[in-house]
Amino acid sequence: MNALASGGPPEMLASQGVPSRLREHPDVTWPVEVCAALGAPPRRTVKALAFITPEDRLLLAALPSHARLRHGALARAVGVRRGGLLPAGAGRPARTGTRLGGGCPVSADRAAVVVCGGTVSGLGRVHGGSGVEIEAAELMADFPGATTASIADLPADASA
Predict the structure, then answer these.
(1) Rounded to whole angstroms, how far apart are CA atoms 151 and 158?
(2) Which among 19, 46, 67, 126 is placed 20 to 30 Å from 101, CA to CA?
(3) pLDDT by residue (tens digit) across 93-133?
(4) Which of 32, 77, 39, 35 is nearest to 59 (CA)?
């Protein structure tokens, strides 16, 4: 794992030359709070859920904040058994600059495994809980090894 992150997602993206914009807001973590603080609808926000693989790698699942994660589909996407995905404690992602819940799937841990929900790439400009506003395609490109899979269940009312 990489050393302690020197900053959060906005600083990491800037250091890698990834264009993004920072939108300051109160420190909130739940997706509904993030949406309210940013004035953005859930369909334009992305959350990151963190897990640890059996090989002790950080796994970030990126999906729209109003979607529910399909754990089995995530496990299949990375080639592990469902029981092999352990939720990451808050300390592990925090050491790499990753924020959980409404956070943005950006990490200083370049060995992290990133799986983006199939709809993320088509979202256009999105917001992360860290205050990052970024093109979804740029967010996904930040992790060259990121994969896309159908890991999310969207609510019936997708206009939320």
Answers:
(1) 16
(2) 19
(3) 555 555 554 456 666 677 788 898 988 888 888 877 667 77
(4) 77
| In contact, 46 and 56? CB cutoff 8 Å | no
Q: Which residue has the tokens 């924020």?
A: 99
Q: Could you please report the per-residue DSSP string of 129-159?
A: TTSEEEEHHHHHHTSTT-EEE--EE--S-TT
With CA atoms as reference, report the closest residue to 84 among 95, 75, 97, 93. 75
Choose among 46, 36, 66: nearest CA to 135: 46
The tens digit of pLDDT for each residue in 78-102 reads 999 999 998 887 666 555 555 554 4
Q: How far apart are CA 28 and CA 26, in angstroms?
A: 6
